[in-house]
Design the sequence.
């Protein structure tokens, strides 16, 4: 009996450390049990909240409890390399080594564990390379942070629900005077370094140009993914698109490009305000609303910036860190009937009916639609009827989109034929 108990006790920590991690399968993120997960939640730079002290769990557990009330299933937590965060700097009231100390003494692990207990997946990201293009810093400071023994141990002991976001908004593409090849090569090398260190969790890569350059990331995503022996990469775009894509047509085109990609794309940051000349000085509310309208039916994951602790109060989901004090932005993120976090049915599909028991799906987006309706694959013989059964639009030529700008606002029924010759039918809402 003693021998059996000894063997059992020896196995317990081993089982935790070697728990199955999350994976990426094609366009989908899967949890440790192989279930498809649509990551929807918020960024929370919790270490920027002055009252938080990881050595005293009560200073953060209430905030995480409040965060969980939003309906989020994922939280993205900003972290920093040694000596960069204000907590490490005496001039700002900090103590050198504080951030690394939280890793070494297990306090960051305890914060992550508490997030797990609230049914939250955790994305951990390094923030001090934001909007930079210094690849020497990337390779000599940021990547070594991830492969340091304490961090590798942290990752591997929490890998069942953890994603590593290598660097927030790092690198420039050719549009910003950078080099696409350098971006791709350095990220491929970084992934290789992390894998060689024994890290198997999904890695997240932000687009170039402060996270905004979706098209160049789409163009590089296949090469980056195929270079990863784990094939476990999530590509992330931040939609601060006031100059990049600021009309419905350009937003839809950028979104369709990502949705049509065979790789896994998420929107790592969406927001209602953008920093151009000052904090939150540019209103991009129409952009984020259009982006989420497109993302929802495609079951594309997204995270808002931010839950709390931002320089722009109106860009926060809450003014106090408590759910009861949601901002207008926060209320929309949580309660919007189409894409809100409380909307568990987010996603609209056209059900394909055929003889037998097999059912497949063709996605339509956005729905509600305003000008253009997109399909995830080519369809033909499109008929749109009003609630009385009158045909109000017909399109016979195979296409992946339909112009619905001429329809009056209301509810319609759309039928079409898929590329496999199957009949599809679904309710369509015209804005």
Sequence:
């Amino acid at each position: 009996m003693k021998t059996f108990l000894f063997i059992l006790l020896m196995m317990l920590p081993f089982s935790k450390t070697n728990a199955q991690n999350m994976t990426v399968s094609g366009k989908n993120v899967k949890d440790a049990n192989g279930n498809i997960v649509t990551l929807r939640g918020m960024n929370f730079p919790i270490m920027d909240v002055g009252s938080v002290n990881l050595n005293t769990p009560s200073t953060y557990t209430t905030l995480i409890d409040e965060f969980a009330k939003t309906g989020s299933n994922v939280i993205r937590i900003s972290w920093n390399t040694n000596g960069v965060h204000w907590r490490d700097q005496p001039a700002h009231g900090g103590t050198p080594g504080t951030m690394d100390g939280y890793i070494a003494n297990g306090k960051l692990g305890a914060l992550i564990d508490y997030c797990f207990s609230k049914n939250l997946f955790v994305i951990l990201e390094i923030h001090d390379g934001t909007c930079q293009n210094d690849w020497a810093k990337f390779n000599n400071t940021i990547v070594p942070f991830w492969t340091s023994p304490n961090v590798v141990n942290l990752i591997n002991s929490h890998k069942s629900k953890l994603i590593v976001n290598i660097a927030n908004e790092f690198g420039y593409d050719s549009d910003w005077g950078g080099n696409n090849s350098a971006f791709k090569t350095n990220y491929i090398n970084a992934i290789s370094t992390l894998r060689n260190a024994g890290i198997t969790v999904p890695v997240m890569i932000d687009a170039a140009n402060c996270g905004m350059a979706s098209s160049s990331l789409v163009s590089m995503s296949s090469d980056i993914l195929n270079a990863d022996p784990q094939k476990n990469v999530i590509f992330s775009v931040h939609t601060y698109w006031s100059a990049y894509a600021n009309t419905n047509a350009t937003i839809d085109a950028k979104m369709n490009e990502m949705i049509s990609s065979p790789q896994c794309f998420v929107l790592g940051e969406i927001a209602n305000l953008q920093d151009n000349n000052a904090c939150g000085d540019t209103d991009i509310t129409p952009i984020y609303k259009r982006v989420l309208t497109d993302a929802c039916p495609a079951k594309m994951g997204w995270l808002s910036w931010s839950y709390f602790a931002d320089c722009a109060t109106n860009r926060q989901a809450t003014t106090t860190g408590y759910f009861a004090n949601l901002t207008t932005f926060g209320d929309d993120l949580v309660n919007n009937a189409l894409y809100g976090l409380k909307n568990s049915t987010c996603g609209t599909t056209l059900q394909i009916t055929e003889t037998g028991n097999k059912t497949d799906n063709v996605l339509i987006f956005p729905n509600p639609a305003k000008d253009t309706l997109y399909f995830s694959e080519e369809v033909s013989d499109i008929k749109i009827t009003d609630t009385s059964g009158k045909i109000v639009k017909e399109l016979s030529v195979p296409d992946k989109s339909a112009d619905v700008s001429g329809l009056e606002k209301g509810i319609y029924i759309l039928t079409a034929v898929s590329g496999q010759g199957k009949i599809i039918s679904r309710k369509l809402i015209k804005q």
